[in-house]
Amino acid sequence: MRPANFSEEKMLMKKTCLLLVGTLALLAPARAADDWVRYKAQPGGGKIRVDGTSTIHDWSVESRLIGGYVEFDPAFDLEKAAPGKVNVRASVLIPVRQLKSDKTSMDNVIYDAMKEKDHRQIEYHLTEMTLKEAPKSPDGPWEFDTQGELFVAGVTNKIRMPVTLTRVEKDKLKFTGSTAVKMTSFGIQPPAPKVALGLISTGDDVKLTFEWLTVRKEAAK
User: Fold this and answer.
1) pLDDT digits (tens, 9 = 90+) for 28-46
2) What sign does the CA torsion over 160, 29, 172, 82 have?
């Protein structure tokens, strides 16, 4: 004869198995995320330049501090990449006060216009990356069309940008690209310095140009 509590034991074993399966299902995505191939920004290895115009001369500010990372799906093989969408994600951060010209007065005007006291960072998040064609060399360059979200002065806009990737060393990748945006699309009023009684005005259009060196993060041991 079966023990009186046989059915209870059977039910308990069933619940335990279901709990174990559920736990493994929850852990699987986390483990998969750990397997992504991450390249982190190399300190001092980046540069972004903003170029604009004014009624008296062209102007530019530049930062050599670009933080962040880019991650590739482990199934993606850069050397055997085929044209099409790439499963990749990236996040970039740039402190506004790291944008500098050769004039402190001009820098302060730009910081005020960009509402730096309330929004201290420029952020960019990649949403889509498409390889246009396979490179002719194992070291690239690889030409991509990208889409992403650019956050400036409290406003987020979607932007498109062609990006070139080259392999600098075995574990280092360099990204370069440029795009044009309007200051007013981010709620930024083109500066008209008060020191010139407002007689100097800047154009709404600016060009963003960057190069970004990243190094592969070592796998956890």
Assistant:
1) 444 445 589 999 999 999 9
2) negative
Residues 155 and 178 in one domain: yes
Total domains in the chain come to 2
- Is 70 inside a domain boundary? yes
Pair 133, 48 in one domain: yes
Mean pLDDT (the chain, rounded) = 86
Task: Identify the CATH number of the domain in which residue 96 sits.
Answer: 2.40.128.110
By CB atoms closer than 10 A (0-12, 13-18, 19+), residue 183 is: buried
Whether residues 122 and 193 share a domain: the answer is yes
Q: What is the pTM of this model?
A: 0.80
Coil, strand or helix at 41 = strand
So what's the pLDDT on residue 56? 86
Of the candidates 48, 56, 70, the one whose C-alpha atom is nearest the C-alpha of residue 195 is 56
More confident position, 216 or 201? 216
73 φ, ψ (degrees, to nearest 5): -60, 135
Residues 176, 163 contacting (CB under 8 angstroms): yes
Whether residue 16 sits in one domain with residue 39: no
**199 pLDDT exceeds 80?**
no
Is the CB of residue 52 less than 8 Å from the CB of residue 91?
no
One-letter amino acid of 48: I
CA pair distance 69, 120, nearest whole angstrom:
19
121 found inside a domain: yes
Task: Please state, in angstroms and rounded to a whole number, the distance separating the CA atoms of residues 186 and 206.
Answer: 12
